[in-house]
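Risk register update: the risk of archive-format incompatibility is retired. Evidence:
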Amino acid sequence: MKVKTILVSQPKPEGDKSPYFDLAKKCNVKIDFRPFIKVEGIPAQEFRKQKINILDHTAVIMTSRNAVDHYFRMCQEMRITVPETMKYFCISESTAYYLQKYVLYRKRKIFHGKQTISDLMDVIKKHKTENFLVPCTDIAKEEVVEKFEALKLKHSKATMFRTVASDLSDLANVNYDMLVFFSPAGIKSLFKNFPKFKQNKTRIACFGPTTAKAVEEAGLRLDVHAPNPKSPSMTMALEQYIVAANKAAK
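Archived output:
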């Protein structure tokens, strides 16, 4: 059976350039985008129950733009003035630049890794005396905290936002040949919106081992898994599968 339509469970890429747009054109498939999950801020009243004093910390770990947004939102809600001496350690250069939305970039102590928490830890090791605050979601990966504990660094895990399922009710009567997922939360959202979902001939693609595990635990068949030795990206894995499947279906 040919793959003609694909639903990617993420927001549509901004701008005209994206490997997904190239894939759609190259393989002659229709690709739609729809976030299966969304982020909601935890109110200050709820955050206070964690008994974390933001100003006790001398550095903040920013693992995403969401972390940046909700850290400064929480400070505003709690009427906290962030001192100019606060240090920021960002997962990537793009996340670091995103800080410009809230602070004067050149006047702050901002550090960043290349793209992973391991890269960032190499930078953090040079600042072992800091007291780190880690703004995160309610389903945050424990990898960050585990690395801090392994190095015996002083830190606090601060849940400032949560991941919830999007309302997908308008898709009830829409069928796609393939669904693409990037997190276990996306799989949960699928079944929250459609409890009676049956995979049948729908192909499932996913990125990362934790998402693959969620697919398996949900009783679904995993057809495309990235990254893999031949396909380091999701679009590369999709292209390989689509070309083979559509050729076999002729």
